[in-house]
Input
Amino acid sequence: MTKEDIIKLPNRVLRQRSVRIGVINEDTKKLANDMILSVIDWENSRDHELGVALAAVQIDKSFRVVVVRNNFDDKTDLTFRVFVNPEITKYEGEEIEDYEGCLSVPDIYGKVKRFSKIRLRALDLDGNKIKLNLEGFIARILQHEIDHTNGKLFIDYIKNSPKAFYKLTKSGELEQLDYDKEIKNSSILW
Ligand SMILES: [Zn+2]
Output
């Protein structure tokens, strides 16, 4: 699996609701591994970005599986945590606006409001129940990824906010996009 296996907007599969995993088996483990390989290959092709997470639908497999990097500060740590059938059971804290990107929306970043804290329920790859209270960046990431399992993307929150769209320059800075020219009529909003 490579970065070429990651599907991008306007691919309509990204708009589908993913199905729950009924039984965790070797196929589930292979799926999670394929997702991780795709993220790492993508990251190797980018100079300024870290591949922090992926939902299975992003490699065209509509199952409720999400992988999240264990260490956001160390690019050499290539380990991921796998969440099967993840659900948010409670949104808490305040809504905070921050930059967000997506491997399925190349080169575009958005300033998106998310809850600062969530309670999460999922299974791990051995079928054990996971219950977590998450806060900050990791809470944002899980909200983004669980949205993917429901066919939702970060741009949906900002599509009517011309000032919320950014792009990454070659030197790795975020620069506001010209909404009318670069976003309004582009296929990502279809
Ligand atoms: Zn995404």
